Amino acid sequence: MEVPISPEDSAAFLRLPYTSRxxxxxxxxxxxxxxxxxxxxxxxxxxxxxxxxxxxxxxIVSINLPGELVDLQQLYLKVADHNVQALTKCKxxxxxxxxxxxLATDRIGIAQAIVATxxxxxxxxxxxxxxxxxxxxxxxxxxxxxxxxxxxxxxDELSRQSFELPMTQxxxxxxxxxxxxxxxxxxxxxxxxxLIEYSxxxxxxxxxxxxVKEGDFTDxxxxxxxxxxx
Length: 230
Fold this sequence. Notes:
The chain has 230 residues and is an alpha+beta fold. It is built from 7 helices and 10 strands. It is globular.
């Protein structure tokens, strides 16, 4: 979601102190149990938010895209309760929490944007719970593809018909509550039926309307600033 803020608020945000760095795929941006004094914004690359069960199983609970602050909750909650890990090589900027908190205190527009962003994250979390809890495997994958296509298309106003997917089948399984074998089988079925084209280079969607139908997808929960899909 892009939360509109005034030019003055935008300029104030850009004046915040920060440092930038590049991290490799697999690097942790946040670790559960850590206490941090900084917020991390993703500039390029993709990351994922995940939890680890007591038995060591990983559940990916969201995907982070460029332009997102991946740890907004740490502004007001002391200890991280989840991990954020780079899926690809990423460029990030690191902003002191105190500076961002003060900016939110001084500028109501910034505070409202932070609240709206967190609320949309919660809306997406509800949809992911529904997706994993009540949709079958093939529908889950189709829905996931539709969500990524919509979110990525809004970064640079790109077509929803194709996008890179830098995730292994094991990682897809961790996001969708499925084994890598089941993911492979369902991807092949979507390819066979002409709903997607899948390769190491990414995803091509030949028929967007049919994939939306297959995935029981609407982008309402993403709160896009345009008419929703379906």
